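Service request form, structural biology core

Requester: graduate student, group of Dr. S.
Request type: structure prediction, single chain
Budget code: on file
Notes: please return the result as structure tokens.

Sequence provided:
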Amino acid sequence: MKGQDVPIVSVVSNEPERFFAEFSEPLKACGQEALRHHTLAQFSAAVLSPREIVIIDFTSLGRETDTLLLPKGRPVLGLFSQDRRASGHASRCTEVMDWPGDRDEFVAKLKRLCRLVATERRLERTLTLKLNLIGESKAFERVMVDIGKYSKCAAPVLILGETGTGKEQIARAIHYQSVDDGKPFVAVNCGALPDNLVENELFGHSRGAYTDAKESQAGLIEQAEGGTLFLDEIEALTHKGQVVLLRFLQDYEYRPLGSQRSRQAHLRLITASNEPLEQLIGDGCFRKDLYYRLNILSLHLPPLRERAEDVVLLAEHFIDKYREDYQQFDKYLDPQTLEWIKRYDWPGNVRELENLILREFLLAESACISITPFKGAIGERRKSGRDRRFRHLFRHNFQDAKGLVVSEFERSYLQHVLEDAKGNVSEAARQAGKERRTFAKLLDKHNFDKKQFSHE
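Core staff response, request fulfilled:
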């Protein structure tokens, strides 16, 4: 094990000399040479390291242990005399053994706890370095506690939070703690699932299932077999898609298009939304029965403005990351910049902070990265709360303004799919998920001439 993974062993005993004399050699066999000793009073006030293993010699402590609280989240090896092994403390220890005990049994149990701590430390670094899960705030700690709980089962999880709070990173953290290395994590945005292809995307198809199905294709569910399927922006799933997903969740069985046989899926489903699903249910946009299926376990991610203690930690983490990525180890954040970073409310959450740090890191002309508080168009928009992209609409009433937005969107969308289909109306209609006749009416409505796209 690497130095940062080697656990620290603390011994709670009223007879430390006897304990060390008998077990100094077995401890060295486990790679433990530096030990900490605590009396019971000292231990009750001690602050434990995240990589600390506690050995408690209950035989030497007597009835003093009646008020002892075992450390939460830390592995404990309890040493008991036979007459005290049935005590309540024994059931709360990670490992127990009779004392005095067998040397080989002691070594085996301690090595098991060492491996447990080392695994936790490696996982912690994975979550920190790869997923940017960093923080000390109470709100962040509550999320991390829930991740630990949810990773111990395979029930569906619904993650709620504003855009940029890191919903996919949290889903990956649950996945990494739940399954063995190498198991797939498959992520898809539900807004990218076309209504007419949702079954094909989820379940896949067999060869010959339809005209263009020249080869069999695995769906998202098969790709995630044994691992995790993450459906982001679940609120964007169409009504048909909601029905299809609900049916699958009843027994986790599915049948690829064109196949005669059903298959049983073995995966974990995690979904995420930045919209209040209960409100969408009330509006008739989301099925209540599907919501109940997805919301077995739920996680609400706090926005960055509610994690004030974490903002500077995250900013410094991103600076460290980009120093390594771009081999510019002299760069650092100006202290005044850190001050306003703490005061800003970060409407775009962690994603906005990360993107800002990256941009300023790349553009900085000196080692000191000094970021001027937002001003100009971006700052004014944030200060006033208005999005200036739509200021030309504000002179209209709501209904007329909404009609203009829809019309602009339709025209832009039609132009995109026609260009992509090179003027082929049937192909463009297929991409748009519309019947050809309905699609043609939209083209007429906006006076599109398909011929102008046929040579692109």
